Amino acid sequence: NSAVKHVLAGSKYALLNTQFSEFHNLAVKKRIINSNHKLLLSMGGVDNPNATLKVLETLSLIKTKIDTTVLLSERAPHFKSVASFCKKNEEWVKHTPFSENMAELMLQHTIAIGAPGSTSWERACMGLPSILIPLAKNQLQICRNLVNAGCAISLSKEDIVDALKFGLEELLDNFDIMRSNSLDICDGMGCQRVVEKINELARL
Description:
By secondary structure, this protein is an alpha/beta fold. The protein has 9 helices and 6 strands; from the N terminus they run αβαβαβαβαβαβααα. It has a 6-stranded parallel β-sheet, with helices on both faces.
C-alpha cells in the first residue's frame, strides 16, 4: 500500500520556538502608544550586502529618530561596521549580537525592519508590522504573501536610501490594522498542531 501524504502548510503550522506561543497572548494584550514606537532591525545572521548599515544610515537622516535595536550576530561579515555605527549613535540605537528569548525581545518593540525569512512568522506572532527587505530569491514569495495579508510593506535593498522614509511613514499610518493582521496570521502554536496531527495519524 502506498503511504498517504499529509501536507501541513501555512502560517498556522509555522514551527516556532515555544517561547512564541507563550508570549503571543501578552502581545495581543499589549497596549501601545503610537507616539512611542520602538523599532527592531534584524536582517538575518549573515546579511552579506550589509543592508543593516544602509538602513541605519538612512534612519539617521530622518529628523525624528525612532528608538532602535539592531540584532546582528558577531559571525556576520559586516559586524564591526554596524557595531561601530551603533556606538557612535547610541542616543537612539543600541546593538545586541544575540538574544536567548526572541519572543521577549520582540515584545519590547512595536515595529520591525528585516529580511522575509522564517523570522517573518515570529514577527507576525508578536504583532510587529514590518518593512521587509528581501536579500535572497527564496524570500520573495514569503514577502509577497505577507504584503498581501496586510502585515508588511516590501522594499528592495536597492531602494533603501530613496524609499525607506516613505515606507516607514506608511507603516506607522497603518500601524493598528497591520498589527492586528499580523497577530491574526500566526499564534505560535504550529509545533503543537504538527505534533497533534502526527499523533492522530499514528493512531490510525
